[in-house]
Amino acid sequence: SLRWPWGASGIVQREAVRAGNWIGHRGPAAMERMAQYHEKDLVLVGGGHAHVGVLKMLAMRKKQNAWRPNRQTRVTLIAKETLTPYSGMLPGYVAGHYASEDCHIDLVPLARLAGATLIHAAATRVDPEAKTVHIARQVRGSESVEWSPPIAYDVLSINVGITPDTAAVPGAAEHTTTVKPIDRFVARFEQVLRGGEAKLRDSSIAIVGGGAGGTELCLALHHRLLSVEKIENVRFVLYTRGQVLSGQNAYGRRAVRETLRSRGIRLVEGARVLGVSRGSLRFENADGCTREEPFDHCLWCTNASPAPWLAESGLATDAKGFVLVDETLRSVSHPDVFAAGDCATVRDHPRPKAGVFAVRQGAPLMENLTSWLSSRDPGALRRHVPQSTYLSLLSTGDRYAIGLRGSWGFQGAWVWRLKDWIDTTWMAKYTSEVRDMLASMAGGEAGKGRADGRDLGRHGMFCAGCGSKVGPDILSSVLQLLRDSPYGHVAPPPEEADDAAVLEVGGACKAIAQSVDFFRSFVEDPFVFGAIAANHALSDIYAMGVSPRAALAVAVVPRGNADKVRDCLLHMLSGACITLAEADCELSGGHSAQGDEMALGFAVTGMVGGAVLKKANLMVGQKLILTKALGTGVLLAAEMRGMCRGEWMDGAIDSMRKLNRVGMEAALKHSATACTDVTGFGLAGHLREMVVASKVLVEIDLTSIPVLDGAMEMSNMGVESSLFEDNLKLSDAIQKDEGTSNKVFPLLFDPQTSGGLLFGVPSNKVESCLADLHSKGFGDATCIGTVTGKNFEKGGKQQKRPVRLVNKP
User: Fold this and answer.
1) What is the pLDDT of residues 442-481, one digit of tens each?
2) How many CB atoms lie within 10 A of CB 65?
3) CB atoms closer than 10 angstroms to residue 348
4) How far is 435 from 682, CA to CA, in rounded Å?
């Protein structure tokens, strides 16, 4: 259970800060801060088609300084997945015409462009009376979720996905693959393809649902498996309760029936599915007879149902549970709640659940959210009546399509090219255009001004997290000046210091280890930031082989009214307490203040129970173990410029949240004698501290260095942290040989936020140590090198370059 030390230390009492004190000074800087004062929260739940339109329009208006609520309104996007699929391109993806990234909108750069806080979580309930959204944050790589405080809103908009209704048919949920949510279907589809030809050859695939979605999917899958993958003897059956394409015109039904017949796909119309068991579909046909037919794979594409929590939240819904809204897309029961897309029904104008309506709702939704935030005048809201007829373009799998509108119909390869142009043009608005706008904001393209392309990261933006550290040269020179001053007692230089200070205290506890870390936020989600900041601060204690016991927090929250300040501080410290609880470390107190942006740090104390792990104790013959992959610095720099994919950022956050307690326990269990944590000075800098202090020579195999997904790609494009150039000066310990040409070389100087541990163990302990780490979730842990000898030349002078880089085959 979490312990909440809000009492005597006064953390929360002090955060309810004198909200108006700073307003008294009216200079230019103060006026700029006043413009950033946080008064309102607009919360968008779901990354659907309407909401991506809202985010893009929000970005454009902010760029033009034309968004009326301006900076006083904070925008938050709650999304279960950071990649949102465009349903119109799903059949083309399945058929093999598009790659996965072609038909997914990455919400990470889009949210950054819009200045929105992206919270990677699923909404579970809305409390309209308290005006909060309850969320569940899924723990990456598992089915478990972690607790998080609800998200407060002043105005709420809902645009979440729907799922095929499996509840009415016994066994459908357990024995079929639903097409929605699309992200789950895509993952399952890729898993089946990876299974290889052997699992699909001579198989039977059943598709239940003969609407536009099911028909397109059936034809696309047929094309992919038989024409692209060349898998033999795959049989397809399309089951539909009524006529195929019952919602379309007669031309469309005739065209689809002929296409299915020509492909050898069996169509069963009038089939009411009664139940599904493992490998078997039971249905009643048009004659009223019950039949049972086998299958190897079954896809479920029937009419969809909304998320149950919508009705459970007390919002007015229609008979099926979809949020009921008026012509302004505002809830008919709660005026501060809006809804759009498939999850909503316009009360006086119900329409089929189709992406075309959600796309067109983006503009009026943006207008009405802006208007309601500004004036709360119902008369100022814009009416939106969805069109009664619309153009349907149904792809048939093979770059051929059928077009339908009203009673008209047409088909051909040119129709597919039209559909492709419409889809790719729309997608470009939220992908390539977003990246271009962010690159322009960052000050130009990668490589401008330098022949080697390593320029982008150092201009226009300074990194946060551990990338915001003062460089090692500056730090060393300042500490040396202080040591030479008459004021006395200053710690030894960094090359002689350990990760934490060990203080003799006497008594039963002979010594304590203390360390402090603090940096400004590199993610907009205060909960995630708090969790990582706490994890980062604990690592110095773990690197000493000591268990942390208490932490004091120093928190800076953005200026705002009392409620907004309280919410931000609560989320930030809640994330921190999740991490501290996992570490059995108490948050004992701290200090808080308001400022321009979020920042958080901790002073951590651990009780020393035995010998500590020091940097200076590497032994000849030991193997060097690195517990986490490199690349957080370059990925965070890329994210600032909109170049980092959502899944890359998810991987980096997952790595930064892994507690180094596991690494410390493995190090102690397997006889480690020296350890450090890899953070702001990069692997090269922290390794340099160890080898200089230990007076040893080491050999590092660059081919064994683990790297986070996307980090190498971004590094090769010239993206780097603003601390990179300072860290590069630490290459004076590296021998200039063939290793410096390896593409991993720049990442040795990448500043790591909440990086892994680096420690030395006997060579006969390597396999068991790595097996231990891998079994506890540290799959990137690897042996990266060897301590090859003592570092002495004639006369006892230490060799200048003790690190040798090699590229082992």
Assistant:
1) 664 444 433 344 444 444 455 554 445 565 666 666 766 7
2) 7
3) 9
4) 28
Closest CA to 555 of 565, 540, 542, 541: 565
Return d(Cα 169, Cα 188) in angstroms, integer.
21
User: Catalytic one among 218, 301, 466, 644?
Assistant: 466
Amino acid at 579: T
Q: Give 440's contacts (C-beta < 8 A, 6+ positions apart).
A: none
The answer to whether 185 and 85 have CB atoms below 8 angstroms apart is: no
Assess whether 466 carries a catalytic annotation: yes
H/E stretch holding 689 reads helix 682-694
Task: Using alpha carbons, select from 604, 600, 522, 524 the residue that is nearest to residue 556.
Answer: 600
327 to 348, 542, 686: CA distances (angstroms): 8, 58, 61
Q: How far apart are CA 189 and CA 221, in angstroms?
A: 10
Tell me the torsion sign for CA atoms 375, 378, 381, 386.
positive
Instruction: Catalogue the E-assigned strands of 445-567.
Output: 501-504, 511-520, 547-558
Give the angle 755-761-766 at the CA atoms, nearest 5°: 90
Residue 579, φ and ψ in degrees, nearest 5: -70, -45
> What's the chain's length in residues?
809
| pTM of this structure | 0.84
Q: Is the dihedral of CA 262, 268, 270, 272 positive or negative?
A: negative
The rounded distance, in Å, linking the Cα atoms of 134 and 132 is 6
The mean-pLDDT minimum among 235-239, 252-256, 516-520 falls in 516-520
CB neighbourhood size of 793 (10 A): 9
Edge-to-edge strand list for the sheet holding 40-45: 117-120, 73-79, 40-45, 155-158, 337-339
562-582 vs 526-543: helix axis angle to the nearest 10?
Answer: 40
| Coil vs helix vs strand at 799 | coil
| Nearest Cα to Cα of residue 23 among 594, 480, 789, 712 | 594
Arithmetic mean of pLDDT, 268-297: 94
Amino acid at 485: S
Tell me, what's the pLDDT at 435?
Answer: 87
Helix (H) or strand (E) holding 32: helix 28-35
User: Average pLDDT, stretch 177-187?
Assistant: 79
Residue 739 CA to its chain's centroid (Å): 33
Alpha-carbon span 292 to 500, nearest angstrom: 69
